[in-house]
């Protein structure tokens, strides 16, 4: 299965192509330049992989939660490319991606949601299957995160951004360095757990209903 994966949910632009025998990837912090960097980097990866877009089987993308602008860029890019090449798309939650990277065990994923909040969910992860989500993905204050009865691994940049989360981690292995990575979408896409859909049916997973900060909220966030 030849796949392209796209993630723009954080300050990193993460792209990867699996041509069936080798993986080619780009994962770099670009701040707010996802839109201008994505297509040139994608063209370079396709050239390295010696593939044309229409030779792919599907396009996977991080559907959220994460940066609202970044999610729309990734979804729009996946849709546009898929339409042009006659391909299906596969939307995959970003927290599932982090859970897979974290390793086997009970994993609590916390991704910084700004506004003094985190996106979170608990997972049961094995070496054989896609992570099993133990609760719905939610958003809330770090002190309100619902912890599993026993967490083996605490993953995601929420643990780096909010020290109180680290303090609650106890004996759990801390993986605060983990962010959504395009390469991890390949195993998830192949698991069969996430449906292939027509590009027009691609959906985003915002989780938080409020998708924009007011000018006052933006100023308050900069001061923190």
UniProtKB/TrEMBL annotation:
Transmembrane segments: none annotated. It comes from Chromobacterium fluminis. The keyword Coiled coil applies. The keyword Coiled coil applies. This is tRNA (Adenosine(37)-N6)-threonylcarbamoyltransferase complex dimerization subunit type 1 TsaB. Residues 32-59 form a coiled coil. Residues 28-129 form the Gcp-like domain. The gene is tsaB. CDD domains: ASKHA_NBD_TsaB. Gene3D superfamilies: 3.30.420.40. Keywords: Coiled coil. PANTHER family: TRNA N6-ADENOSINE THREONYLCARBAMOYLTRANSFERASE, TRNA THREONYLCARBAMOYLADENOSINE BIOSYNTHESIS PROTEIN TSAB. SUPFAM superfamilies: Actin-like ATPase domain. InterPro entries: ATPase_NBD (IPR043129), Gcp-like_dom (IPR000905), T6A_TsaB (IPR022496).
């Amino acid at each position: 299965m030849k796949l392209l994966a796209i993630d723009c949910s954080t300050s990193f632009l993460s792209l990867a192509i699996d041509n069936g025998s080798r993986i080619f990837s780009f994962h770099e912090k670009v701040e707010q330049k996802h839109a201008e960097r994505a297509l040139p980097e994608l063209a370079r990866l396709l050239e390295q992989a010696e593939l044309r877009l229409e030779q792919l089987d599907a396009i996977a993308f991080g559907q959220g939660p994460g940066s609202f602008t970044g999610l729309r860029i990734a979804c729009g890019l996946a849709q546009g490319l898929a339409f042009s090449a006659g391909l299906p798309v596969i939307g995959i939650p970003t927290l599932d991606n982090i859970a897979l990277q974290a390793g086997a065990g009970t994993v609590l994923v916390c991704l910084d949601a700004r506004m003094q909040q985190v996106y979170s969910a608990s997972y049961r992860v094995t070496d054989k299957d896609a992570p099993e989500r133990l609760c719905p993905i939610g958003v809330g204050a770090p002190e309100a995160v619902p912890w599993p009865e026993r967490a083996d691994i605490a993953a995601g940049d929420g643990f780096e951004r909010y020290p109180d989360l680290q303090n609650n981690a106890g004996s759990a292995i801390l993986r605060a360095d983990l962010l959504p990575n395009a390469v991890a979408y390949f195993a998830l896409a192949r698991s069969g757990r996430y449906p292939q859909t027509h590009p027009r049916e691609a959906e985003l997973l915002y989780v938080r209903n409020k998708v924009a900060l007011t000018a006052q909220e933006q100023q308050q966030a900069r001061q923190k």
